[in-house]
Amino acid sequence: MTFATLALVVTIGLLGPLLALPRRWHLPVVLGELTAGVVFGATGFGVLDATDETFTFLADMGFALVMFAAGTHVPVRDPAVRGALGSGLLRAAVVGVAAAVGGWAVAQVFGIGHAAVYAVLMASSSAAMVLPIIDQLGLTGPPVLSLTAQVAIADTACVVALPLVIDPAHAVRAGIGAVVVGLCAVVMFLLLRYLYDTGAQRRTHEVSEDRKFTVELRISLVMVFALCGVASAMHVSIMLGGFAAGLAVAGVGEPRRVAKQVFAISEGLLAPLFFVWLGARLNLRELGEHPQFVLLGLTLGFGAVLVHCVTRALGQPLAYGALAAAQIGVPVAAVTVGEQLAVLVPGEGSAIMLAALCTIVVASIAAGRLAARKLEPHPDTPSV
């Protein structure tokens, strides 16, 4: 990989912010970045070589930080959300059961045999996508707290479950690796908690801010890459290492200054580079060669929305159920890990990404409806 290629990647990655610019569309930035990679990668002009070792390693760094950010978005310290864990857990469990049935049915219809993978994909939610939409719309109240808890539980459970189901032949090894990564994350949390309780974190923060040392940022990056190193050594995806590090930081509370610094490194370079690399790696021509995978993607995507909407029976409004179906981290991880392990058949990775895009479109429509309802005047409000 050359500096010219890097400049091209960063430049075309700007398509992400451009597509996400209209707020009323509620489109994620990654959509444009993926599209740019598709256009300049294997599907399109073939300018970007996703097999380049340097490009791949930088993309792995971006993937780790994407999962780290997803972990920090899980509201583990919010007492209001903890109070809604019961209803959130119930809804996540109901969705999980429906997704298990749906995943089995999809696998039977298409004859691929990845029922467990499809179930995890359909059950997943993306806290990194849903929670910012909730904040942007200013949604509040018990239904929103339950939705937040539901998404956090589903996101965490599916991130842990994916490595176990995507390579069932090594599920025991993956399970042991996941436990080791989890224990390391607990140790990191306890260490961070100790530094916080003793005041060392505050003193370090003051010195770092005054002297421009960015010590806390460096420590956060050490945590992420160290856990990813442990995950790699235990033959577990780095997605689990990055996500576990994010949960450890979320458990203590990430300082705003550090969050902004991590955001700058991740969203300014490495995360866009990862999504462009992922788009460049996908070969959507395979969908033309295997048209049944177009139907598979649509089935998985709208099936995920359907299984999330079964919570209507528990009193959850349909718009909230559709919003909870939004997913990006788990499908991206499934494609990345699945292709690395060569467990996906040609066209299946593209179908999974198509499914994720379907959930994003539906979630954007649901968010628009929620925003419109919020702006509607109350019937008792006098007209002026």
TrEMBL record:
The family database entries (Gene3D superfamilies) matched by this protein are listed as: 1.20.1530.20
| Residue ranges of every copy of the Cation/H+ exchanger transmembrane domain listed in the record | 14-370
Say if the entry is tagged with keyword Transmembrane helix: yes
Q: Which domain of life is it from?
A: Bacteria
Residue spans crossing the bilayer: 30-48, 55-76, 88-107, 116-134, 178-196, 219-250, 262-280, 292-311, 350-372
Checking InterPro entries in the record gives:
Cation/H_exchanger_TM, Na+/solute_symporter_sf
Q: How does it sit in the membrane?
A: Multi-pass membrane protein
Q: Kindly list the places in or outside the cell where this protein is found, as annotated in its UniProt entry.
A: Membrane
Report keywords, A-Z.
Antiport, Ion transport, Membrane, Transmembrane, Transmembrane helix, Transport
Q: Which family does it belong to?
A: Belongs to the monovalent cation:proton antiporter 2 (CPA2) transporter (TC 2.A.37) family.
Report the protein name in the record. Answer: Cation:proton antiporter
From what organism does this protein derive? Nocardia thailandica
